[in-house]
Design a protein that fits this description.
Hypothetical protein af1432; 5-stranded antiparallel beta sheet; alpha/beta; Rossmann fold; 18 helices; Beta-Lactamase; 10 strands; 5-stranded parallel beta sheet
Length: about 525
């Protein structure tokens, strides 16, 4: 689909020809981007280590460090920037090879400015989707970790789950967790997880817990880089080779009961504010689970009968978690592909309605998440070739309610609930689960309903082949006013036709329904 430029996106331009740098900088600045230029790969690498960029545009052949070598360094250091290569006609094959190694796209010199903006728009749209998918995965990770630790009465298990999630989600090299001994007041290292080949040779630095707790008391978790992190460690424990460090408190009833730390020893790999917030949420869930586990232990020691009852409840909880995990594993590729396409169609309609950016993002995310309730539905039932039985229909119709329940425990996903809960409501009140009608159906539910139906009709199903586009839009027009909001249905038909035409003009026919 056509992607509008991201206002203020940061772009780094690298070329040893000053004229090329100046032309690109001037043009991209006029387009609303924040542009910085350097003349070679070494300076580009230094700049990327210092500041985050959304997009890198680099020449392929440069002195000191070529574009291909720069790309390899970016991949090695996990600097996380999307790369577009510029190349002459004689090096197209090299550019294609670079794309196989991680570059997003390439521009042929000499290029036209409209070609540049087209590639930049597509790259930034890809970068934006990747960022949203990362945030979604982080939120789902928090939900799954919260479920796992909330149902556990084993402190060591809680700490291990929390640490492994911290290590994986922020791509740290090392994660440690210290619990405060309630009797001595000292912080003891209970669990340590070290990524393969990443531990410093001279051992890990020892945090200065007094200083950490003082800063925590001001409501500020710690995020520090390089030598600036040194003051948070004991004098005889220098953080040699440390690139970045985060420390967040585990707090129960206003008291710090532990500290979660993550370390990066990878050159150029620096944590950011998003990582600190994610770890703060994980630490908060872990602290509550630890408190509950300790209370559970006290109750178990004081009352045998209550212990037996709680052990039985624990078993049921563990069975629930096991069932949830099994349902996720049984998810098939259709759901993922369907959700991604529904997200595209919701954005087409949302942009056509000129919704504010925040509301548009929420509607697109709701398109991704709308079928999350199907994790509790057997896919062999959904994908069978024959008609569903009344009993199977009743099970299927539970997925909007299940989706609501899955999202409710995660505050940052509350804005997506209406998309999950309401996308099977009908405009005339004949839908489910609540029989809402007209404007009583939230806008996100009415938008996702149309996008969901269009993709369902234009995709292959076990019981029929995909319907042609013309048949699908004809069905949407026929059901306008009954199943669908008539104004939104009319807008969608026009917008999706325009989108299809645009995709054909760009030679991307394979990405649109037939």
């Amino acid at each position: 689909m056509s992607a509008e430029p991201t206002e203020g996106a940061r772009i780094l331009v690298v070329d040893d020809e000053r004229v090329i740098r100046e032309i690109l900088a001037e043009f991209l600045t006029l387009e609303g981007f924040s542009v910085h230029t350097v003349e070679d790969g070494e300076k580009a690498l230094t700049e990327l280590r210092l500041r985050p960029y959304d997009l890198l545009i680099t020449d392929l052949k440069m002195p000191r460090l070529s574009g291909l070598q720069l790309l390899e360094k970016i991949e090695q250091e996990r600097l996380g920037v999307l790369t577009v290569l510029m190349t002459g006609f004689g090096t197209v094959e090299t550019a294609i090879e670079a794309m196989k190694k991680g570059a997003y796209d390439y521009l042929l010199k000499p290029f036209k400015v409209e070609e540049v903006i087209h590639v930049v728009e597509r790259a930034l749209y890809r970068q934006r989707l990747q960022a949203e998918n990362i945030r979604l995965r982080e939120a789902l990770t928090i939900y799954k970790v919260s479920e796992a630790i909330a149902l556990s009465h084993d402190i060591e298990h809680i700490l291990d789950v929390c640490l492994r999630a911290a290590l994986d989600e922020v791509k740290a090299d090392v994660a440690t967790l210290h619990l405060r001994d309630s009797m001595s007041g000292h912080y003891e290292e209970r669990v340590k997880v070290v990524a393969a080949d990443s531990a410093p040779r001279n051992g890990l630095p020892s945090p200065a817990f007094g200083l950490l707790v003082d800063q925590f008391s001001q409501g500020v978790p710690i995020l520090a880089h390089g030598l600036k992190a040194a003051r948070f460690f004991t004098e005889n424990s220098a953080p040699d080779g440390l690139s970045s460090f985060i420390a967040v408190p585990l707090t129960v009833h206003g008291t710090t009961v532990g500290v979660l730390n993550v370390f990066s020893y990878t050159s150029g790999k620096k944590f950011d504010e998003g990582h600190r917030k994610l770890l703060s949420v994980l630490a908060s869930r872990a602290a509550s689970a630890i408190d509950n586990a300790r209370l559970y232990g006290e109750l178990r020691d004081s009352n045998d009968s209550l212990t037996r009852a709680n052990l039985s409840l624990e078993e049921m909880f563990q069975q629930t978690v096991a069932g949830f995990a099994q349902a996720l594993e049984e998810s098939d590729l259709y759901t993922r592909g369907h959700s991604e396409r529904v997200a595209v169609y919701t954005e087409i309609l949302g942009r056509g309605l000129t919704l504010p950016d925040a509301e548009l993002r929420q509607i697109v995310q709701a398109g991704v998440m709308h079928d999350v309730g199907k994790i509790g539905v057997r896919y062999d039932m959904l994908n069978k070739p024959g008609k569903l039985t009344p009993e199977e229909v009743a099970v299927f119709r539970q997925h909007p309610e299940k989706g609501k329940r899955i999202l409710e425990p995660v505050p940052c996903l509350h804005g997506l609930i209406d998309g999950c809960w309401c996308h099977h409501e009908w405009f005339d009140g004949g839908g489910y689960p609540r029989g809402l009608s007209g404007q009583n159906i939230p806008l996100v539910g009415r938008v996702v309903a149309i996008a969901d139906a269009y993709d369902a009709m234009t995709s292959d199903r076990a019981y029929r082949r995909a319907l042609p586009h013309e048949v699908a839009v004809g069905e949407i027009e026929r059901c306008a006013g009954t199943q669908f909001d008539p104004e939104l249905a009319d807008a969608f038909v026009k917008l999706v036709d325009a989108w299809r035409a645009g995709m054909r003009e760009r030679g991307q026919d394979s990405l649109i329904p037939r």
